[in-house]
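Researcher: Quick one. two chains, 658 residues in total.
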Amino acid sequence: MIPARENILSRVRTALRTEAPRPTMPTTAPIWLPVGDVEARFRAEFTAVRGNLLDSSQQLREFMKAFPKIAIDGSTLVRQVAGDGTATAREADIGVTGCDCLVAQTGSIIVSMHASGERALSVLPPVHLVIARCDQIVPDLAAAFTLLRQRYNGHWPSSLCLITGPSRTSDIEKTLVIGAHGPKQLAVYFAG
Amino acid sequence: MNAAQQFRRAAAKKAADPRHRAVLEKNIATYDDAVARGRTRYAGWENARSTAAQIKWKAINHLDSYLEQFERAVVENGGHVFWAETAEDARRYIVELAQQRGVQKVVKSKSMVTEEIHLNAAFAAAGIEPVETDLGEFICQLRGESPYHILTPIMHLTKTDVAILFHERFGTPLTATAGELAGVAREQLRKVFLSADMGVTGANFLVADTGMVALSTNEGNGRLSVSLPRIHVVVAGIEKVIPHFEDLAVLWPVLAQVGTGQGVTAYNTLVGAPRRDGEPDSPTEFHVVLLDNGRTRLLADVEQRDALHCIRCGACLNACPVYKNIGGHAYGTTYQGPIGSVITPHLRDACEWSHLSYASSLCGACTGVCPVRIDVHRHLLHNRRNAVRRKFDNPLQRLAFKAWCWVMQDATRYRITGKLARLAIRFGLAAPLAKAWMQGRELPEVPEQSFRELWAGMDDNSRTRS
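Model:
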């Protein structure tokens, strides 16, 4: 095993004695259009990727009724809003989790073990509901990465995921189908 | 039949197949629309490309230190790193690991590098069942085919083709919609996910400073593959490493934009460790196989090193007029299209695969769409030059070009040859020479007089008339 490592690295070092020409340098001009109001932008982007925004506690209750078997991540906020879990991720009709943050620019949600429970909870049940607070929305991916670096540097969770809409596939004739292997529905409820 | 002959035969067949062309055209037109819509999110797309190119340039030109940094971080987090010089080394490590751990079933998330090393065949030979879980790859596996496109594995199939296949295999009605077909795959594969012992994935990026593997999927099969089985194995080319976690803030959206036109892919997952204390699920073992398999050869070619910047987005395939005509299987390679034609002679045998460099009109569409600014069409030209220098080209062709040079260097020779050529074409003597070209084409009508002769016969007045 060791010789392969040394062989590869030594071939790399020999090759790199000559540096390849540098490509065009980027400028400081913005890459993306401005995000604008973070909450409004998140709502627009999240809806555009077929996310389901639950706007009131009434809507949340109606939504939850359809799913008798509930798996939750056990965090205080989730328990307060969705009640106690009644199933494991493998049996559940719905997985209810918190999140690390939400990204306005892309309408995304970032989950990890620390904020949203085990890996399967947000991907195995047919529906994923995220309970969040509006102050968890950050403007763009760069801000999300800064936040994660501050929060976790040196003790990263074993896995993180940037979730943008329910699972999907366009493999057959590029026809968009919502609901592939992951959740068929993704909902967000803002508890304050 | 050698690879070049096979390529010519397959390409000629596909180029003359109108059904095939219609399927590809429809698929690529939908892709083009989505990409154009996605582009409206950008204030400075060219700046996004430059940023992405700069990140990859930095990574590739300091590859040794980033690889070591990545390895250190993975090991610190409790994972294993295996360095594989060849496809054979990688296969052996993964299959032996599976055997030692009593693995019977493996779920695979879409990965071109595992196609490159022919991992499925190695699993099957060891009595282990590999199951592809990406819908397109699942269909390829059922058909016993290789992927048609690095990002869109069944670009060549219609919904009806898939419905017929699923009807035969699973009894699905022939009238099933795309949604119903995807539902059948979900149901079939759900059982497999829940019973698999090992998940094998590729990597879109390897993040050096956190020791994480970045994996983009839309279907969620990647996430299930790294959540449910007890062992997770990542196979990645050494060129996949990037310096910083923060680089993904640009690379993820850029990859999605050119791959599918999405703002970002539905699931961008980062995995950096096996199960931690207190985690109820996740694999207990996390292995990363770092594969060379010819990549250091390409790295040593300073002129073409930027081909290692490739993030396998598939954009150059969709833009290529040759790909649009001959499709993916004709290439006979793991990586098709312009970038495949550039890198295959380096990754495999330069002599055997240099013919692919001629499967291009050098129009530059590939270079124009490349999100990491690889000089794709110029590299095809470099490959042609290298092939001639190394005498991989056809001796007859060499002779023909020598003769052409000799003719072009002298006005009299040029005039006489032109006259002879016109006569030869008019009396059908050129036809045998242009046999391959004339299948499906006709030679143009040749005028009585050459331009020179016409010019000499004109008075000043006609010469200046616009």
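Chain B has a mean pLDDT of 95.
Researcher: Thanks, that's what I needed.
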